[in-house]
């Protein structure tokens, strides 16, 4: 283990997501972050934060955010992937997410759109932002891919 890894460096500190409508994003992404164990943090005129065990996520809008839709297929961040618990919990969260304005991506291949050993659902909110919910028990194929 490197000295940096021993001191905790290299892991994410926070993620900041710029959104066009912070209120709409609080209702969708914020709801999901809370379901995943994040707790509401600070709130200000154009933003809000959600605090996790070792990191936090910011949703922010305001005058510097371009008035354009999010394009997950453009260069830059495509999606965030979260470990969401058991396969049952992934399914429960996906069902609830649909009630909060998300759509299920790759529906024809779900929950194995990432491959036969990767149990996950891919959701997109109304603004076009994608979130992947991964089961803790992904299966053997994921472990082999990580070693390979």
Structure report:
The protein is α/β, with parallel strands linked by helices. The protein has helices at residues 3-6, 22-35, 87-99, 140-147, and strands spanning 14-18, 39-44, 47-51, 56-60, 79-85, 103-105, 120-124, 130-135. The strands form two sheets. The chain has a four-stranded mixed beta sheet, covered by helices on one side. Strand 7 and strand 8 (130-135) form a beta hairpin.
Give the structure's gist in a few sentences.
The chain has helices spanning 3-6, 22-35, 87-99, 140-147, and strands spanning 14-18, 39-44, 47-51, 56-60, 79-85, 103-105, 120-124, 130-135. The protein is of the alpha/beta class and 148 residues long.
Descriptive tags:
four-stranded mixed sheet, 148 residues, alpha/beta, disordered C terminus, 8 strands, single chain, 26% helix
């Amino acid at each position: 283990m490197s000295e940096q890894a021993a001191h905790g460096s290299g892991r994410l500190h926070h993620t900041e997501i710029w959104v066009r409508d912070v209120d709409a994003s609080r209702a969708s992404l914020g709801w999901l972050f809370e379901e995943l164990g994040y707790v509401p943090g600070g709130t200000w005129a154009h933003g809000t934060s959600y605090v996790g065990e070792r990191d936090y996520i910011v949703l922010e809008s305001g005058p510097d955010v371009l008035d354009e839709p999010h394009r997950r297929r453009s260069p830059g961040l495509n999606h965030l992937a979260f470990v969401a618990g058991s396969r049952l919990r992934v399914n429960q969260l996906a069902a609830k997410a649909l009630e909060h304005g998300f759509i299920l991506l790759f529906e024809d291949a779900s929950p194995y759109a990432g491959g036969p050993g990767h149990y996950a659902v891919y959701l997109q909110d109304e603004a076009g932002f994608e979130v992947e919910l991964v089961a803790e028990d992904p299966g053997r194929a994921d472990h082999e891919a990580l070693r390979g």
